[in-house]
C-alpha cells in the first residue's frame, strides 16, 4: 500500500519510536506501542543506529510487530554510513519478508572511532540504490534549520532536491521549535521544485538534558522562549512535561492550520505524552482540508 497516497486524503499523523537498550525496556516499548495503537496513526517509524549508536538489531523485529500485530504500516530507518550494498539488500529482503515495503533512507550519524564503509556517504546514494534494487517506497529527511554539515541553506536545499529527483517519495523534517523556520524552509523547497509531501517533525520535551543533547547532535537551535521554559522547570519533571506538551500542541495546532502535509511525532517511546498530544489535536486533523500550498 502506498503511504504517499494518504497525503492526498488527509493531514497525515505518524509516530517514531526507537529500539530500547534492554529486554525490560523492550517489553515497555511493546506496551507503549499497544497504547498508541488506538490512535491509529498513519504509520510508525523505527530508528536504527539513532544518534550514532552501534545497536543495529531489533529494528526489523519491532517494525514487524507494528506492521503485523498492530496492523499499522511500519517504516524502518536505514542509515547508510556503516553499511555496504549487501547489508542494505539483506535488510530490504528481511523487511520484505515481513511485508514491510517502506524505509527512511538516511546518511546516519557518525559513530566516534568507527570508520564508515565508504559506500553510502550521503543519503542520495542510498536512495538511488534502494530505488534501483527494490520496489520500496523511500522516505528522506530534511532540515528546516539547515543541516549542520551543509555550507549554507541553499546547498542543503539543492541536496534535498537531488534526493527527491533520485526517488525520495516523501520527506520527514528534523525536529524544530520555531514554526516560522519550517514555513520559510517549505517555501524555499517548493521554489526549488521539491514537490513531494513534507511532514513536520515535532519532539515534545521530556527532560532538559535529553532535549539539549538531541538538539546538539541534530544541530537544532533552541529559541529563547523554549530555553526559558527548560530553565524554569528543569527541576520539576511534571511541570516540564506539561509545559513541553503545551509547546508541542501549540506548534502542531499552528502547523495544521497552515496546511502542513503531516506531523511526525518523535514519541521518545513515551505513550502518555503522545496520547495527551493526540487527544488535544485529533479534531484538528479530522477537520483539516489541505490547501494546495502553505505560506
Ligand atoms: N538513525 C536515525 O534513525 C535517524 C538519523 N537522522 C540523521 O539525520 C542526519 C543526516 O541524514 P540525511 O539527511 O539522510 O543525510 P544527507 O546525506 O541527505 O545530508 C547530510 C549532509 O550532507 C549534505 N549532502 C547531502 N547530499 C550531498 C551530496 N551529494 N554532496 C555533498 N553534500 C551532500 C546535506 O546538505 C547535509 O548537510 C544524520 O545526522 C542522520 O543520522 C535523522 C533521523 C533519524
Ligand atoms: N541527527 C539525528 N539523529 C537521529 O538519530 C535523529 C535525528 N537527528 N532527528 C530525529 C530523531 C530523534 N532520534 C532519537 C533521538 C534520541 C534518542 C535517544 O535518546 N536514544 C537513547 C535511548 C534512551 C533510552 O533508552 O531511554 C539511546 O541511547 O539510544 C533516540 C532517537 C532519532 N532521530
Element layout with pairings:
Elements: H1 6-9, E1 12-17, H2 23-37, E2 43-46, H3 59-68, E3 74-79, H4 85-97, E4 102-106, H5 123-133, E5 137-142, H6 153-165, E6 170-175, H7 179-191, E7 198-202, H8 208-218, H9 224-233, H10 237-257, E8 262-266, H11 271-287
Parallel strand pairs: 1-2, 1-8, 2-3, 3-4, 4-5, 5-6, 6-7, 7-8
Helix pairs in contact: 2-11, 5-6, 9-10, 10-11
The structure holds 1,4-dihydronicotinamide adenine dinucleotide (NAI) and 5,10-methenyl-6,7,8-trihydrofolic acid (MHF).
5,10-methenyl-6,7,8-trihydrofolic acid binds next to strand 6 and helix 8.
Keywords:
TIM Barrel; binds 5,10-methenyl-6,7,8-trihydrofolic acid; methionine biosynthesis; alpha/beta; 295 residues; eight-stranded parallel barrel; binds 1,4-dihydronicotinamide adenine dinucleotide
Can you characterise this structure?
The protein is of the alpha/beta class. 47% of the residues lie in helices and 15% in strands. The protein has eleven helices and eight strands. The protein has an eight-stranded parallel beta barrel with strand order 1-2-3-4-5-6-7-8, surrounded by four helices. It binds 1,4-dihydronicotinamide adenine dinucleotide (NAI) and 5,10-methenyl-6,7,8-trihydrofolic acid. 1,4-dihydronicotinamide adenine dinucleotide is lined by residues 47-50, 77, 79, 106-109, 122-124, 141, 147, 149-150, 155-156, 159, 163.
Amino acid at each position: 500500500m502506498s503511504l504517499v497516497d494518504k497525503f492526498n486524503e488527509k493531514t497525515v499523523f505518524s509516530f517514531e519510536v526507537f529500539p530500547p537498550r534492554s529486554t525490560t525496556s523492550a517489553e515497555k516499548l511493546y506496551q507503549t506501542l499497544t497504547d498508541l495503537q488506538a490512535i491509529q496513526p498513519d504509520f510508525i517509524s523505527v530508528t536504527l543506529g539513532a544518534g550514532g549508536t552501534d545497536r543495529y538489531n531489533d529494528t526489523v523485529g519491532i517494525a514487524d510487530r507494528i506492521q503485523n500485530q498492530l496492523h499499522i504500516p511500519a517504516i524502518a530507518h536505514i542509515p547508510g554510513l556503516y553499511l555496504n550494498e549487501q547489508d542494505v539488500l539483506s535488510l530490504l529482503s528481511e523487511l520484505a519478508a515481513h511485508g514491510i515495503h517502506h524505509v527512511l533512507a538516511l546518511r546516519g550519524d557518525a559513530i566516534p572511532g568507527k570508520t564508515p564503509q565508504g559506500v553510502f556517504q550521503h543519503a542520495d546514494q542510498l536512495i538511488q540504490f534502494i530505488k534501483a534494487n527494490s520496489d520500496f517506497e523511500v522516505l528522506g529527511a530534511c532540515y528546516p534549520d539547515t543541516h549542520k554539515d551543509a555550507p549554507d541553506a541553499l546547498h542543503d536545499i539543492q541536496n534535498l532536491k537531488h534526493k527527491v529527483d533520485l526517488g525520495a517519495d516523501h520527506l520527514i523534517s528534523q525536529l524544530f521549535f520555531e514554526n516560522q523556520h519550517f514555513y520559510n524552509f517549505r517555501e524555499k523547497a517548493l521554489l526549488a521544485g521539491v514537490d513531494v509531501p513534507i511532514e513536520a517533525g515535532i519532539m515534545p520535551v521530556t527532560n532538559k538534558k535529553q532535549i539539549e543533547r538531541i538538539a546538539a547532535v541534530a544541530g537544532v537551535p533552541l529559541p529563547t522562549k523554549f530555553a526559558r521554559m527548560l530553565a524554569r522547570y528543569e527541576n520539576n519533571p511534571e511541570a516540564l512535561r506539561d509545559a513541553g506538551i503545551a509547546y508541542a500542541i501549540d506548534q502542531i495546532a499552528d502547523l495544521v492550520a497552515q496546511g502542513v502535509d503531516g506531523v511526525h511525532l518523535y514519541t521518545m517511546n513515551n505513550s502518555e505524552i503522545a496520547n495527551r498530544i493526540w487527544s488535544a489535536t485529533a479534531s484538528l486533523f479530522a477537520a483539516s482540508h489541505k490547501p494546495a500550498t502553505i505560506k
